[in-house]
Amino acid sequence: MAFLTSLGYFLLGDSLNTTVTVIATLQNTIVEYDTLTLTYVLLVGIAAQAVGIFSFWWIQRRFKFTTKTMFNAVMIGIILLAASASTSSDTTA
Fold first, then answer.
1. Which three-class secondary structure string do you get for 60-92?
2. Distance of alpha carbon 48 from alpha carbon 13, whole angstroms
3. What is the C-alpha separation between 21 and 25, in angstroms, rounded?
4. Residue 92: band (very low, low, confident or very high) from pLDDT cuts 50, 70, 90
């Protein structure tokens, strides 16, 4: 069971990373940020990730959710994020 959980976590994380990379590439192609602005955008993204990690940790600790429950919540969030990104990726200008 631990192997399947680890495999699922890896696949979900990889799919989220791929989605974010594709979105960032498309945004940079369409908007054409300069290097400094792109660096600032990436730093804001890292800060947002830190806020998200802390929020999920706080929710888990506050409501005493198990690791499996939190994993399922994150999995659902990743699937919804990927689905919304794929449905709203209209690149026509």
1. HHHHCCCHHHHHHHHHHHHHHHHHHHHHCCCCC
2. 16
3. 6
4. low
Question: For residue 62, what are its two tokens?
Answer: 């506050």
Q: Is the Cβ–Cβ distance between 91 and 26 less than 8 Å?
A: yes
Half-sphere exposure of 17 (CA within 13 A, CB side): 6
Residue 92: phi and psi, rounded to 5, are -80, 140
Q: Which of 26, 25, 2, 12 is nearest to 78 (CA)?
A: 12
50-75 residue pLDDT tens: 898 899 999 999 999 998 899 889 88
27 close to 89: Cβ distance less than 8 angstroms: no
Within a 10 A sphere around the Cβ of 76, how many other Cβ atoms? 10
